[in-house]
Each structure stands twice: as structure tokens, then as C-alpha cells.
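pinned: reference chain
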Amino acid sequence: MTAPPRVRYELSEVHREQLFAYYFEQWWCVQRDRAVVERALQASRPVVLCDDDGTLVGFARVVSDAALYAWVGDVMVHPDRRGSGLGAALVDAVLAHPELQDVVTWELTCVPDMDGFYQRWGFRDPAPSHMLRRRRGAIPLDGSLPQGVPTDDHR
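pinned: its C-alpha cells
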């Protein structure tokens, strides 16, 4: 039986490099620039899962005011460890974050195929509400824009 992963609420330099070894391979991260991700990490609360030997095997980050709202993003398990229950352990660790115990509303973004996974922690589609989004530059996930499609970049 494998020991449960250790949870850390900080991202050491060693873990940062281990994370970046597979971070940019995630489909939603391929267009991201490392310098921009570094800024995002500085403004987030990291949640790190480590093996017995201290190797990073899971990661998520939370952006929150620590009172009313928290958004969970970049939830990822090392590709070699997927399907082993670490995703569930990671969500448990996110929701147990000691600085975020008073948060009223938690949100996360995921593909529809993952809805069932997150529902066991009470995440639901908030319908009939909807979310509005403003982005600087319209960048599709595959990095391409069909010809003639305007961007929302009004700088």
C-alpha cells in the first residue's frame, strides 16, 4: 500500500522546477509564458502533493480573498501518477487549506467531462446564473484565430 501524499501549502524552488517539467504540457497551459505563470503563482496560494521522497506529484493553485471567494485553477497530477487517487487527495487538500477555511464560495473551471469528479465535493453548475468574462486578447486554446475574427484587445 502506498503512503498518502504529503501536503504542502508552499511551492519551493525544487517543486517549481518539478512542476514546470510538465505544467506547459497541459492542454490549457500550452499558450502560457513562463514569466506570466511565475506572476500568477506569486498571486496564488499553491497546494502541492509530494511523494515520500519529496517529489511533487500533484499541484493546484487558489486565488482568493480568504473570506468570500476562492477560485481553484491549474489542478494537475503528474502524468505518471494519474488514476491513482491523487486528484481526489489534491481537491481534499485544496479545500483543507488552513488560510481558506472561512471562504463562502468556491469556484473552479473544468471541462464538462470532469463535472462528476468535482461534484463529490459539492461543486455544481451555478445555473441559472452565468459568468461574464473580459480577456485581454482573444486567444483560443489551440492558439489559432479564424480569419476575420476580431479580438477583444482594445489597447
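why pinned: Residues 57 and 81 are 7 Å apart (CA to CA). The two ends are 55 Å apart (CA to CA).
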